[in-house]
Amino acid sequence: MQIGGLEIESNLSLSPIAGYTNLPFRLALRRLGGLGLATTDLVNARSVLERNPKAFKLIETSPQDQPLAVQLFGAVKEVIRDAAILMESMGCPVIDINMGCPVRKVCKVGAGCAMMLDVKKSARMAAAVVDAVNIPVTVKMRLGWDREQVIAPELAKALEDAGISALTVHGRTRDQGFGGDVDLSGIRNTVNAVSGIPVIGNGDVVSPAAAKTMMDETGCAGVAIGRGAFYNPWIFYQTERFLETGVLPPGPSINDIIDFMRRHLDLLIEVFGETSACRMFRKITPWYARLFGPSKEFRKLTANLASRQEFETAISRYLEWRKEFIDEDGKLNNKYLPEPPVASFMRGGNDQSITPPVR
Ligand SMILES: Cc1cc2nc3c(=O)[nH]c(=O)nc-3n(C[C@H](O)[C@H](O)[C@H](O)COP(=O)(O)O)c2cc1C
Q1: Whose CA is nearest to atom 19 of ligand 1?
Q2: Domain 254-334 sits in CATH 1.10.1200
């Protein structure tokens, strides 16, 4: 996928989930393959300009964490522009402007989703950033504010005219939050509204089949995957293979999943220190546990995780507990296989048949 002057090997992007898709997670994911562009958590452009250490921690990166977009939010054109200039001078390869955050605190100041309500102002802001930097500028938005105000096609066109290099559109409106159905026709209308830039579809891509359906039905150039990366970190690799060959590679074994978790936790410890890392990991283990099949005991054992050593103890105890669900051939009994997540736009379809069970 071509984003301005940047050639990105995979058209599968990581959609930012603030507090989760940080440097350690991105590094762990990139080792599994298939992931193209990733984006940092949204960060307040003003805090970046003030060189606030907390803001810089949010956008921490490393040479292996490429390609990466830094996502800025703010309502003042000059502030976003100057933050983008600073980011470029620090080596950032892509600037993403957030026009999709539904959180009241962000919208109240005219940033995030509120930017969709004033197309001209938002296009002027994008143009100011595009003119000020030499790196590609992208935007992430939703379909609109609510059902009555679906603005994405009009805004997309105005932003393309302003010179942005790519656009991610989450197929929900602001009032839908993160639930309700993703509207593929809304994404398709946005794709049709622009003439040259890639549009990346987003929302509920939780399986390779969902990625293919979104691309086929909307004509989007790629997809951005957020929560699906926590349901299944192998989703990028699997989707890339599936799109290329039509065949799904085998799913991860329980040992693969445990190794991935170890790596993720070790990287979290490197970046945030053991105490904070373990606290953060408590919220992440329930996501991974979905891949395990029966996982009640694992969730219990990691709910108050306080040290790296405790994690190893939890794994050993869990594997012992899980034995009762294993057949003589060493595999999880079929009736305990985890239910794969199904995208809102795939319900009633046959998504499950191509989602690999854990071995
Ligand atoms: C807890 C949470 C935090 C999020 N943080 C961000 C963010 O910082 N920037 C952003 O553009 N989108 C953010 N999103 C939206 C996601 O990037 C994505 O658009 C949305 O979750 C739909 O995609 P998914 O179904 O693949 O997760 C967040 C979503 C959630 C649930």
Answers
A1: 170
A2: yes
User: What is the residue extent of each domain of the chain?
Assistant: 2-245, 254-334
- Complete DSSP assignment for 53-115: HHHHHHT---TTS-SEEEEEE-S-HHHHHHHHHHHHHTT--EEEEEE----HHHHHTT-GGGG
Q: Decide if 220 is catalytic.
A: no
Residue in the structure block whose two tokens are 């108050």: 304
Q: What CATH architecture applies to the domain 2-245?
A: Alpha-Beta Barrel (3.20)
pTM over 0.70: yes
Task: Give the C-alpha separation, 128 to 112, whole Å.
Answer: 17
Pocket residue to mutate for ligand 1, from 15, 200, 230, most atoms within 8 A of Cβ: 15
The residues that bridge with 97 in the sheet, in sequence order, are 72, 139
Could you report the per-residue pLDDT of 277-336, keeping only the tens digit for each? Answer: 999 999 999 999 999 999 999 999 999 999 999 999 999 999 999 999 999 888 899 899
| Cβ atoms of residues 94 and 135 within 8 Å | yes
pLDDT in tens, 146-196: 999 999 999 999 999 999 999 999 999 999 999 999 999 999 999 999 999
Q: Which of 92, 101, 107, 113 is catalytic?
A: 101
Cα of 313 to ligand 1 centre, how many Å?
A: 32
CA 318 – CA 341 distance, rounded (Å)? 23
Q: What is the mean pLDDT of residues 126-146?
A: 97
